[in-house]
Amino acid sequence: MTAGSARTMAADIARQIENEVVADGWRVGTSVGSESAIMDRFGASRSVVREAFRILESRHVATPRRGPGGGLVVTAPDLSTVLDQASLYLEYSGFTADDLFQTMELLEIAAVEQVAATISRADLDGLRDTLTAEAEVDDLRFAPSTVYTELARLTDNPVLALFVDIGNNLSRTHGIRPSQSEQRWIHQHSVDLVDALAAGDALAAVRTVRRRIRGLRRRQSVTSTRHDSTGVQ
């Protein structure tokens, strides 16, 4: 077997195992099989199977474990790795700040509209805890979570939550450090949003999201223009 065909076979084995993990409900901690069992199953050499294991480990699907009950064991995907990879791809694609703001406005409004009708007192308490933590952060770009990421999680829509997290991750990389007055302005919009949700006023909540995003977009545009004209990076 040539090196190229060995890599192809390893990739095929990894893809088949990955598909089976997904079909089985991604049960973290369960064993896919021992190295020798997978060699027998696929009629592959040890080196090919180990390459398949390496592929699965790099994709955070499964990892080899030694000892009793070991073999290839299903693992949980690492969200931070997913966010970093998605962000790198968007960097490569040449996204713009306008792309980011436009998408975040759509996603955050979708989250608000979905949560507004069903939000509970416990949900509101959780959002207020997030507001308290947000108020204590020196730079909001690096807050571990925001009202908007928490709202996305409250939708129970993992796709929406993931894309809001990706947008938040890109904002950390490309956002301009806000001044103290700007941080207060951003935080006040978060407070207004939670107050609107507590009052059951979905329209006011949506308007708050739009004001915040469009204000951030104008600020980014003005600051970028100043940097371009002065040569400041």
Automatic annotation (TrEMBL):
Limits of the HTH gntR-type domain: 7-77
Gene3D superfamilies: GntR ligand-binding domain-like, Winged helix-like DNA-binding domain superfamily/Winged helix DNA-binding domain
UniProt GO MF annotations: DNA binding; DNA-binding transcription factor activity
Keyword Iron assigned: no
One Pfam family from the record: GntR
Alphabetical keyword list: DNA-binding, Transcription, Transcription regulation
The organism's place on the tree of life at top rank: Bacteria
Keyword Transcription regulation: yes
Protein name (Swiss-Prot/TrEMBL): DNA-binding FadR family transcriptional regulator
Organism: Gordonia humi
